[in-house]
Design a protein that fits this description.
alpha+beta; Rossmann fold; about 30% strand; 14 strands; four-stranded mixed sheet; five-stranded antiparallel sheet; GMP Synthetase, Chain A, domain 3; 2 domains
């Protein structure tokens, strides 16, 4: 299941352990499984979610072994038949534990994009496909998703993964969901802006309280701004719609710049 649908299921009508008694395996993909969802599902089902990773262009390429160690937060190990390379912006491979862009090579890779040779040439180089996703690998070969390359927020020269900030925010007992984006700033490059929704019946924290809460967990990566939403926008595939969040932020900035002095 997609994480968005899964968290709705876990929280549906006070669902309890008896409602999950028949489940033996839960596999999730398509988006990052948050630490909060992992905790809630494990408490209900008695075992963690099995994360995997794939794309239309390459198929499913990693999985936590269903009968092996499931490392919570990891998208698992590379499936046999796939090769991977984690590279920096210069194309050099990065060491173990260092985030890099994931390149994949296998017989399952697509041939190319339909009637789009330019996009094909940009994505496939010497038989390797650029996924556009940032990953790090540990010493045991487990991969950890660090965000889409285009989603990485660059603040004062430091790279900030939005998913890490989102997980910090959803640790707060009142927060149901969080979406984090980067907003252009002339001084800092980009500033971190977060959108959050509240759990039903939970006491609403102030924005400053949430910022301090996140700062205690992720330091300088914490958001400078927090906006509260009644509902988090999702795209057609059920993933967090960051494009919509960016549009909302742009509309807010535009309104502020044209409002003039009070």
């Amino acid at each position: 299941m997609l994480p968005a649908a899964l968290i709705a299921l876990v929280r549906d009508h006070d669902a309890g352990s008896s409602d999950f008694a028949s489940i033996r395996l839960c596999s999730a993909g398509g988006d990052k499984v948050s630490a909060e969802l992992e905790r809630e599902f494990t408490a209900a089902a008695g075992f963690p979610i099995d994360e995997s990773y794939g794309m239309t262009e390459i198929g499913v390429s990693t999985i936590n072994p269903p009968y092996g160690e499931n490392r919570m937060g990891s998208i698992g190990k590379l499936i046999p038949g796939y090769e991977m390379s984690l590279r920096d912006d210069s194309g050099a491979e990065v060491p173990v534990g260092t985030p890099g862009r994931l390149w994949i090579r296998s017989q399952a890779n697509m041939i190319g994009y339909w009637e789009n040779p330019k996009a094909t040439a940009e994505t496939i180089v010497d038989g390797w496909l650029d996924t556009g996703d940032m990953m790090r690998v540990d010493e045991d070969g487990y991969l950890w998703f660090c965000g889409r390359k285009k989603q990485i927020i660059v603040h004062d020269g430091s790279n900030i993964c939005p998913q890490e900030v989102e997980e910090a925010l959803t640790e707060h007992p009142s927060i149901a969901e969080a979406g984090v984006i980067g907003i252009h700033d002339l001084v800092h490059g980009e500033n971190v802006r977060a959108y959050v929704t509240l759990k039903e019946g939970a006491p609403p924290p102030s924005a400053s309280e949430l910022i301090s809460f996140a700062r205690d967990r992720v330091g300088y990566k914490a958001p400078e701004e927090i906006a509260f939403l009644s509902e988090m926008p999702l795209n057609a595939t059920g993933k967090l719609d960051r494009v919509k969040l960016l549009r909302m932020a742009e509309e807010r900035l535009s309104a502020s710049s044209t409002a003039g002095p009070a």
